[in-house]
Design brief:
147 residues; single chain; 3 helices; alpha+beta; TATA-Binding Protein
Length: 147
């Protein structure tokens, strides 16, 4: 038997979770990126001519890629997501985004491909900047390389 104690609060709780970027709705299901599997997905990614973007943090808030995943949910490519990353698609443009944490380096790394990959990167950076702005004194350094 399901616990019905908070059933009347379900809509309110979902609304709060959406407001605080904890979950998103896609095809009549709710998803919470911080609960996704930690294992990076295996995807056949063609790195030829990719645009590379890195946003480095002196301190990277936990779950920042989860927030970005929620903000960019309409671009999620199929089921290509995990707790620390996501693949986004807009038309024939793709972005492979992953959170990397090391002892002396914390960053969000992206590789993008497609004729208009720069446009997709601009949309991602706009959302990323909005998320970063919600944190006080967050210091970031951006680097874009074309390979």
């Amino acid at each position: 038997m399901r616990n019905t104690k908070y059933a009347e609060k379900k809509a309110e709780l979902i609304s709060l979770c959406e407001e605080f970027k904890i979950l998103f709705k896609k095809t009549n299901c709710y998803y919470a990126p911080q609960l996704f599997d930690e294992t990076e997905i295996k995807i056949d990614w063609d790195s030829t001519g990719n645009l590379h973007y890195i946003c480095s943090y002196s301190f990277m808030p936990k779950g920042i890629v989860s927030y970005l995943t929620v903000e960019m949910e309409k671009y999620i490519d199929s089921n290509n997501y995990w707790r620390y990353g996501v693949v986004l698609q807009e038309d024939d443009n793709f972005a492979y985004i992953e959170e990397k944490r090391c002892e002396n380096r914390n960053e969000i790394a992206m590789k993008l491909r497609g004729k208009n990959a720069k446009n997709l990167l601009d949309k991602i950076r706009l959302k990323s900047d909005e998320i970063n702005a919600t944190f006080t004194n967050l210091k970031t350094e951006e680097k874009i390389d074309c390979i």
